[in-house]
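Crash report, auto-generated. Payload:
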Amino acid sequence: MYTSSQECLREPPSAPKRDASTSSPGAVFTHRPAESFAAGRVVCWEGDPSRDAFQLVEGSVRFCRVQIDGHRMIAGFGFAGDVFGLSYMERYIFSAEAITDCRVRRLSYARLTALSDNSSADYAQITEQLRQQLHEMQNQLLLMLHKSADERVAYFIMRVGQRLNRELRNGSEIRLAMPRTDIADHLGLTVETVCRSITRLKRDGVLALNGPARMTIKDIDAMRRRCGDETVHGADDHPGLPAAARRAG
Amino acid sequence: MYTSSQECLREPPSAPKRDASTSSPGAVFTHRPAESFAAGRVVCWEGDPSRDAFQLVEGSVRFCRVQIDGHRMIAGFGFAGDVFGLSYMERYIFSAEAITDCRVRRLSYARLTALSDNSSADYAQITEQLRQQLHEMQNQLLLMLHKSADERVAYFIMRVGQRLNRELRNGSEIRLAMPRTDIADHLGLTVETVCRSITRLKRDGVLALNGPARMTIKDIDAMRRRCGDETVHGADDHPGLPAAARRAG
DNA sequence: CGTCCCTTTGAGATAGGTCAAATTCCGTGG
DNA sequence: CCACGGAATTTGACCTATCTCAAAGGGACG
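Recovered output after restart:
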């Protein structure tokens, strides 16, 4: 916050590509063996010295942190293809817990930095990742600052949907791997509130549920409207207004 | 959030040093000429192509972003010595606005990256900065998630105080350069709520005001208590519990 | 001395939290 | 294939922190 140099970060490369194999930071992991973690197990512990970075091959994880008063903060979720634990100094700030059974590839920082010496491109990827995370974090912050409970939930569902489902349209099914509690702890709400928000979406015919974890989009436009201002854009992501337009204010 | 690789970031180097001249990322700027910006002027615009990074030599700036509905989000504040605009691709995500008159040094990315080629140390500093910002952002998020209005305000005051005043104790004076509106937009509250929280701190003898911008700490322990769980630590910042202790839960 | 802007205070409205209970889901065993 | 039990989800009733709207100080500056 009032810490040094908070801002002025760039937007992420226009169309964020992040398939498991193809693009940037994942590439480094492809030749590592995969480890398995059962649902509920912890991949890395908050507070432990950080030695490795990870790539999630399959399944989903949550990144969380427990406060002294027992409150749990979930900073985010990781899905197949995601890279995490990029911090190559000191300690992990969050635990990564398997939500479902999952498989991860592990790469030690030693190896990672060794790699970087050969090709500075790899190092740039790390930096790139950090920037992307920072950007994401900023959106998250925005979410917390100015969105109502309903907006947060709608926004969350859309984002998860897009992450899993590339192209959302009416009829798209979204699978929410995480329990309501996790969503609540992520959005800074209570389980009850999350439920009620979802119920409202259902009641208004914006989406349909088959079981708590599977939902189908019925009216994607309504859904978008309910995300509040900072719209969840389609696949082609435009910067919105030209900067000049905003200077007036 | 549910974006790739959200977390597992390390904690910042134990004692964060950031005097204007001495430490890391500032060094690169020392030989650049200083430009002046009057209070209210904008150093860089949200949405503009990002070309330069900046170091604030004197004064304070806010990093902000205006949403379509007119809501303003303040991501943070910068004080003398802080570096910002580190994002060296695409566009600035936030505007940096001078709160008071201030002076900044500017360094083009071209020059910055050129520097990096000679000494990878400089490049590492940038990465380091990014990580630090990410860490800060996470604290910010935590703040938004689980703290009450009173806690947020107390926490905010303490943080600004520490940023400016190295060692806070009873009798320390804190100068809040930014108006209440800025604090509100930063903490996700309304001006009125911020006022009331401050009034309460005053009423309870925890701090004293001389004019809206100057406050003196009367009871620093009470102040700390009011920050809620994620304590604002003293100058020597310990990681808290050993990691092992937390594994129980 | 008046105006404008920022801050503070007051009174009422409301979104979301809390506590408690009903319901659904889903794995396990008969 | 069906019944059972614990966990997760959903719903309800009520309560409180924070927002909203409105108005009253206070300082700086012309």
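Post-recovery validation: The CA atoms of residues 9 and 90 of chain B lie 24 Å apart.
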